[in-house]
Amino acid sequence: MPHYCTLIPGDGIGPEVAQAAVRAVEATGVDICWRRAELNEAIILEAGKTLPQYLLDSLEETKIGLKGPVTTPVATGFQSVNVALRKALDLFANVRPVKALPGIKTRFADVRIDMVIFRENTEDLYSGLEHEIVKDVVTSLKVITRTASMRIARYAFEYAKRNDRKTIVAIHKANIMKLADGLFIRCCREVSQQFPEIAYKELIVDNASMQLVMRPETFDVLLLPNLYGDIVSDLAAGLVGGLGIVPGANMGETHAVFEAVHGSAPDIAGQGKANPTALMLSAVMMLRHMAEVDAARKLENAVESVYREGKHLTRDVGGDSTTAGFTDAVLRTIRG
Ligand code: NAD
Question: Would you say the CB of residue 263 lies under 6 angstroms from ligand 1?
Answer without folding.
Answer: yes
